[in-house]
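Box S1 | Example of a co-folding query
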Amino acid sequence: MHEDHNALGVALGQKPTQPVTLVRPHAAHRAARYFLEKFPGLSMYAVKANPSPDLIRSLWDAGITHYDVASIAEVRLVRGLLPHATLCFMHPIKGSEAIAEAYHLHGVRTFSLDSLFELEKIVTATATDGVAATDLTLCVRLRVSSAHSKLSLASKFGIPADESAPLLMAARQAADALGICFHVGSQAMSPQAYAEALAQVRVAIVGAGVTVDVVDVGGGFPSVYPGMEPSALDGYFDVIGRAYEALPVSYSAELWCEPGRALSAEYASVLVRVEARKDDVLYINDGAYGALFDAAHVAWRFPTELVRDTPSRARTMGFSFYGPTCDDMDFMHGPFDLPADVKAGDYIEIGMLGAYGSAMRTGFNGFTAGATVIARDEPMDSVYGVTEATPAKVISIR
Ligand SMILES: *Cc1c(COP(=O)(O)O)cnc(C)c1O
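Box S1 (continued) | Returned holo structure for pyridoxal-5'-phosphate
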């Protein structure tokens, strides 16, 4: 893969006509080390946030051994890249064929579920010649509040804690290890989200009277974006660690987490070109059907920087973006802060797009991704206490 110092190097050197993805393996490495050193349990990467093989290999090299996969394609992808990784199939509703292939072909032993119907499906699909598997880790997904999070995951999956006793007891019978998992919603802005969810785990355990071997607090760990500045992640870990220690679980029980966003957000940014300007709206060459799905569909704001040889001295103002497709929906309200003199032909770097950015890209209307380049500078922002600011940028230290 081509390497460059930063976005300016790429803009000047290549004058790219398609959006360029700038990846920072060192940022992914740093995020992984932070979780591995500070989270009081096991950290697995939720592959859906960014399934890029280069990122997955970087996380493995940093020490991430467990991967949360949600489809058979993700199972095959990660197994193909990492023969020795532990894969956990954490989608509560799976096809029987996917379960069977994951178990019999790819060595997957951990599955999540939120109904007796799914439990039956897992037990049947993992049996060999009619004999039930004896090595399953089954994680019952509880429904918990997404009130502290920017993106809800509260309505689709999960069984309420006070209704979960029959399912927990049945899963206990079928499992070698029994887990309870949940997801507080993505970009949880307060550690309180986990404390409240773990209180529901207690309700479930006490109600069912079962021995629990795994408590999996899911994803939701935040990154930093304009207008969304969370407190430090180790504060989240403290709250989780204390609430976990107080749970009535087995002596040898394990605490797990499944960060997607937090491990991948700082990994990538995208360099786009301004094709036209109309007042405070910029027509750029990436958008809602590319890496900016969240900017368009859930009004997410991302940090932006004008990438020019001679920095602009104009005042900063807020812009909205139109993406390249012919669709009105290809609109990103922002506001995205840029110098007031930005014009057609300028390049803009859009930061913090490693999570749910390139993962969402489609080829709609013929607009596809351009090159991927390794950048050696720091991401535009960080939740991992980046201290060495590159000359071109100021990086907030937290
Ligand atoms: C999406 C998802 C994750 C990752 O969530 P983030 O908010 O990106 O950390 C983890 N676990 C499950 C089951 C998910 O669906």
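Residues 192-208 form the longest helix (17 residues). Confidence is low (pLDDT under 50) at residues 388-398.
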